[in-house]
Design goal:
Residues 1-58 form the Lsr2 dimerization domain. This protein is of the alpha+beta class and 126 residues long. It folds into two domains: 8-58, Lsr2, dimerisation domain (Wheat Germ Agglutinin (Isolectin 2), domain 1, 2-Layer Sandwich); 83-125, Irregular (Dihydrolipoamide Transferase). The chain contains three helices and two strands. The protein has a two-stranded antiparallel ribbon with strand order 1-2. The longest helix has 18 residues, at 86-103. The N and C termini lie far apart (78 Å).
């Protein structure tokens, strides 16, 4: 005799049938919640203003649904306000930190991440 097990996804808010599992994060904690399409839309609407003003820190890219990237460039800069120039400013500052650290007798590499202690010492001295 064959058996079939059926798993029914229920909306965590009202126990109605759920259409999707929504993942979101806050304060370094990632959450999952099973929601109906209506509740998922309500959650996304509630977070929209915050998400539009936030910086993306990782995670997977959402599949395109025909909407634009919201003005963000592939490098993470914002094309609307010229924030893409931030990368060159960061490079210049990193170079200045490296030069300062070497003059202080510290060992730093030519490339890669600068140790937090070195960067903190630089910022304290400037």
């Amino acid at each position: 005799m064959a058996q079939r097990t059926v798993v029914t996804l229920l909306d965590d808010l009202d126990q109605s049938p759920a259409d999707e599992t929504v993942e979101f994060g806050l304060d370094g904690v990632t959450y999952e919640i099973d929601l109906s399409a209506q509740h998922a839309a309500t959650l996304r609407d509630a977070l929209r203003d915050y998400v539009e003003h936030a910086r993306r820190t990782g995670g997977r890219r959402r599949a395109s649904t025909g909407s634009s990237s919201g003005g963000r460039s592939a490098t993470g800069g914002d094309r609307r306000n010229g924030a893409g120039a931030r990368a060159s400013v960061d490079r210049e500052q990193n170079q200045a930190i490296r030069e300062w650290a070497r003059k202080q007798g510290m060992t730093v590499s030519d490339r890669g991440r600068i140790a937090r202690e070195v960067a903190d010492a630089y910022h304290r001295s400037h």
